[in-house]
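Hi V.,

You were right to ask for the full record rather than a summary. Here it is.
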Amino acid sequence: MARRKYSFNSEEFHPMQLTSADIILRQQLEYSISRYFYEACDRTIQNLLSSCRWYVTIHASAMTLVIECPDQVTNWRILQKIVPMGSLLNKIVSSAKIRVCPPEGQGVPFEMRVDELAVYRDMA
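Predicted structure:
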């Protein structure tokens, strides 16, 4: 049996340049997921999120919910609700992460993948 030889154009290995339409579509997707997530949250989580800067970002097929906390008390309360938030996010997309950022200069962000939820449920 003869072997086939394949040749690849080196340009095929470079990422495609995003068009403005791609950027707009990604922003609309991020907005829609944010809204869907927020509406699925209970009132307690909605109130906590309302006191923070938070957003959804999508890069290279991985979605991240970023929550920037204004103070340490809010940061602690958000961390206490990370399992229910992760469960909601996991219903939307299984390859998501949550990143909780404390106030600037007051610690390092905590990051959790939603497929790690079982570990955190056992600790809660």
